[in-house]
Amino acid sequence: MQQGFLLTRDWREGRTGLTLEFWVATPEGARLLVVSGEQSVCFFDRDDLSRLSELIGHLPDWRQQPVELCNRDARPVNALYCHDLRTQREIESLAEAAGIALWETDIRPPDRYLMERFITADVQWHSASAGRERLPVRKLLPAPVQDIALRSLSLDIETSMDGKQLFSIGIYGCDVARVYMVGDCPEQTEFELISCRDQRDCLDKFLRALRLLDPDILIGWNLVGFDLWMLAQFCQAQKLKFSLGRQGAEPRWREDAESERRYIHIPGRVALDGIDWLKAASYQFESFSLNHVSGQLLGDAKLISGTDRGGEISRLFQHDKVALARYNLQDCKLVADIFARAHLLEFVLARARLTGLPLDRVGGSVAAFEFSYLPRLHRAGYIAPNLGELESDIVSPGGYVMESVPGIYDNVLVLDFKSLYPSIIRTFLIDPCGYWLARAQQADATVPGFNGATFSREGHILPDLIAHLWNARDQAKQRGDAPLSQAIKILMNSFYGVLGSEGCRFFDPRVCSSITLRGHDIIRQSRDWIEDQGYQVIYGDTDSLFVWLADIDKGEDARATGTALAAGLNHWWREKLDAELALTSALEIEFETHFEKFFMPTIRGAETGSKKRYAGIVSGEKGRELIFKGLEAVRTDWTRLARDFQRELYWRLFEGLSWKRWLLDQVAALRAGELDAQLVYRKRLRRRLTDYTRNRPPHVQAALKLPEPPKRGDWVEYLITVNGPEPLSRQQSPLDYAHYLERQLRPVADAILGVFGERFDRLVDDQLDLF
């Protein structure tokens, strides 16, 4: 029995049926596993048998048979098998025109093959041709997790500013640090610098090296959208085959017209973009530029930065190719070091093992859910509904957010329900299949939900799936396996979002509202219990409660109270659910944070307390730290001026330090032009520039003044001048300091100064009266 790790999956149609192709990494190198003679499958209502048979009888290469499955309305179904997908697509078209429903037609054959065998990433097989790269196999089986080291290569290219000329290609990894440079270069350098006659020679040498190094993974920064796409264009212009895949295969491209994103499929290799995978792993940065992220994670930086980086690259290509190569290679190394520091490859592998998704699938929460859920649903005797099949006027609400009590407080505790929505699903047995089963059961065999939903106490799928993941995460934490723990957390927390998404075939507002409304009820009842213990809850948000300890002064007493409240509330819920519903509680509230000082602002311009916005001081391993949530200090659409101003002002106010003189000095420095570097706004274009017709916000106005208009998704950096918004790189007018005073400093200051009986305008005006 041989084992490997899935890299890519494909299928082909031929005379013997569907041929599935799986590239896998093994200790002996990559292998192409070929499974022949497969068929596509979908399902139809058994009562439609005669109509469908008459409708498609003239078509070849299909068959049908009864199966022990039914649809969600408990109607028995038959399976329809087709020799190839062309036949299935033709049947789909005829059936739709005749009003005959077919189910599960959209599942790709390799995915169907893997999910029904519970294969996610680790596979095993028998083959009589063990040494060959292409291995015909009868079947694949799931394998235990194995330690196979995937070979990764970091890739970066440099081009002219107009993207019409390739300058160099850098690669780092697989025991090489090398740059291919167009033009003559010195022979003696501290790294491999390969001179290339022209662009075609550069591309050819790179592709030859790729075949020899044979990496499993290509990594980069904007790798697919820029580097690989540009290499494909350069190869096309040079009439050179872009043989990026194994066995010389060319990649396939797909472009999403709505998002303007490009996707690539490389047979036998996987392309991973550092930006996408940092976001997928829940990393957050003010900017995802390579220079900023490497500075934050590594304390390292690119060798060229600034607004004229493109011009400097062109100058180096003409006059100092060694310096350009060094810059090119540094970018490759930074990406490789970021992947290592953030354990991104480990996270990608853990996610693939959990979800069954292809390694390069960044999003895919719905697909991940269905990959796990569908085979279990089939074994429970059901098939899945089609997307959009259910129509309902029920609206599922979001998380419960309490009205806050604004003010400044000493000693506020945050009690947080650990993975609240997954724990609700586990506790109250919420599940699409369980909902279908309950419709035919007596009340004592079900658990009540909301909006008329009930859930079967037996036969459910999702609660057990979450319990399994929950236990796996606890084990990963005990082993110190942070990437796996994070991957499990993200997957579990995505399940509610999937069930609440109309893009999921299992969407039903009665099911997802049974999660959110139960969450509302839990937060409200938990608040009442805490207040019955003599404490005031000043705020609650989805899965957290903020408790003010008015009569406690010492930090150790506050923390002891937090621990006791969490333990008491957990006990109360266990007793309550067992007594009232005969359910075992998986709810787990934790004492998360002790704020020594805490500020809850009002809604701007009102006396009502705000929501999802607060600040406070906590003590931890790093000492005393000021924490912000939702306020300007952590919002990248506010200037650095406002963010730094808020942090310092709040710190001074919380700590009882002198602040009025400092505030007036900041205002004076702004007016004197001493803080100009902090006045840049930065905002992303959410639409195409041409789509902004009636309303053009400031960043769009600035973008329209650039010589090369940015694309959707690009960041725009701009300043507010006396003549309106202007791009940072093309500023021509004096800055409008009155704007920054009124729109950046005043709102930040007045949010908290009112609590101290002060107003920003009065302080500033009094200062002006002195002159």
CATH architecture of the largest domain: Alpha-Beta Complex
Mean pLDDT metric: 93
- How many DSSP H or I helices? 22
How many structurally independent domains? 4
Report the end-to-end length measured between terminal Cα atoms. Answer: 88 Å
Oligomer: single chain
Placed side by side, the strands forming the largest sheet appear as 9-3-2-1-8-10
What is the level 1 CATH name of the largest domain? Alpha Beta
CATH fold annotation of the largest domain:
Palm domain of DNA polymerase
Shape: globular
As a percent range, the share of strand residues is 15-25%
CATH superfamily membership of the largest domain: B family DNA polymerase, palm domain
Number of strand elements: 29
Poorly predicted parts? none
CA gyration radius, whole angstroms: 30 Å
Task: Please give the largest β-sheet.
Answer: 6 strands, mixed
Which helices and strands occur, and which strands form pairs?
Elements: E1 2-14, E2 17-26, E3 29-38, E4 40-45, H1 49-56, E5 62-70, E6 76-82, H2 85-98, E7 102-103, H3 109-116, E8 122-125, E9 134-136, E10 141-142, E11 152-159, E12 166-173, E13 176-182, E14 192-196, H4 199-213, E15 217-220, H5 223-237, E16 252-256, E17 261-265, E18 270-273, H6 274-280, H7 290-298, H8 309-319, H9 321-341, H10 344-355, H11 365-379, E19 407-417, H12 420-428, H13 432-438, E20 446-448, E21 454-456, H14 462-479, H15 482-499, H16 509-532, E22 536-541, E23 544-548, H17 555-581, E24 589-600, E25 614-620, E26 623-629, H18 640-655, H19 660-671, E27 681-684, H20 698-703, E28 715-721, E29 724-727, H21 737-753, H22 760-769
Parallel strand pairs: 3-9, 11-15, 13-14, 15-18
Antiparallel strand pairs: 1-2, 1-8, 2-3, 4-6, 4-7, 5-6, 8-10, 11-12, 12-13, 16-17, 19-23, 19-24, 20-21, 22-23, 24-25, 25-26, 27-28, 28-29
